[in-house]
């Protein structure tokens, strides 16, 4: 008679395993497919077993964001504040690019978790350690906005690109009605995967804006700028 004790033990369920599985599921199939039911199925448990580790879907999403923040890691040491901030933001961007759903979830959270607050506190600390005043750092963080996490919110959601034949037919009408938009579009570098619009180099545009901001912050810092001056 077979000994039941020889069966491989099941990996115990804990909060970390639940969150990692949720991130993997969202990576593979998209955040809209994530539910407590299909997450339980992925883990081989009944849905009620998940509620011992996350109280509800909102707590699950908060925990997923915390995992991403941990993935960004601490700031680099031995650098001046400006290159250190730039490097960390670009690390955050690469992290979010590995998880295409992440920016949407971060924006959806009604309140920051302790891990998100710790990340923002660390970012503020980088500016303060560099000598920027509390006043300037306050406005710096507002100006950075979601760039601190490696993404930006563009003016418009992008629609699927029309096929080349449709574009060719529409181009004369666009050029006559919106000449400046047409002029910019005709000169843009091509990147079909861009989220800022067809024809735009997403990474270049992000770094271009980030560098403009950092250069401006440095100029104001050197001038001893104050919002009350």
UniProtKB/TrEMBL annotation:
Entry keyword DNA-binding: yes
Protein name: TetR/AcrR family transcriptional regulator
Alphabetized Gene3D superfamilies for the sequence: Homeodomain-like (1.10.10.60), Tetracycline Repressor, domain 2 (1.10.357.10)
Keyword Repressor: yes
Phylogenetic classification of the source organism: Bacteria, Bacillati, Actinomycetota, Actinomycetes, Mycobacteriales
TM regions (residue ranges): none
Domain of life: Bacteria
Domain HTH tetR-type: from-to ranges: 12-72
Keywords tagged on the record: DNA-binding, Repressor, Transcription, Transcription regulation
């Amino acid at each position: 008679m077979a000994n039941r004790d020889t069966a491989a033990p099941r990996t115990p369920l804990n909060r970390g395993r639940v969150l990692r599985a949720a991130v993997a599921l969202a990576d593979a199939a998209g955040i809209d497919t994530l539910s407590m039911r299909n997450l339980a199925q992925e883990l081989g448990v009944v849905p009620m077993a998940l509620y011992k580790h996350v109280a509800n879907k909102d707590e699950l999403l908060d925990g997923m964001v915390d995992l991403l923040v941990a993935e960004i890691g601490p700031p680099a040491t031995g650098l001046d504040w400006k290159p250190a901030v730039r490097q960390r933001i670009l690390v955050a961007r690469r992290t979010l690019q590995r998880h295409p759903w992440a920016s949407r979830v971060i924006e959806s959270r009604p309140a920051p978790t302790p891990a998100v607050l710790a990340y923002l506190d660390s970012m503020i600390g980088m500016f303060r350690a560099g000598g920027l005043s509390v006043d300037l750092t306050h406005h710096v963080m507002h100006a950075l906005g979601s760039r601190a996490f490696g993404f930006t919110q563009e003016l418009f959601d992008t629609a699927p690109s029309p096929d080349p034949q449709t574009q060719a037919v529409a181009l004369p009408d666009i050029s006559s009605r919106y000449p400046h938009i047409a002029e910019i579009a005709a000169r843009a570098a091509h990147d079909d995967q861009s989220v800022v619009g067809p024809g735009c180099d997403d990474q270049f545009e992000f770094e271009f804006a980030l560098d403009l901001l950092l250069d401006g912050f440095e100029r104001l810092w050197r001038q001893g700028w104050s919002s009350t001056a």
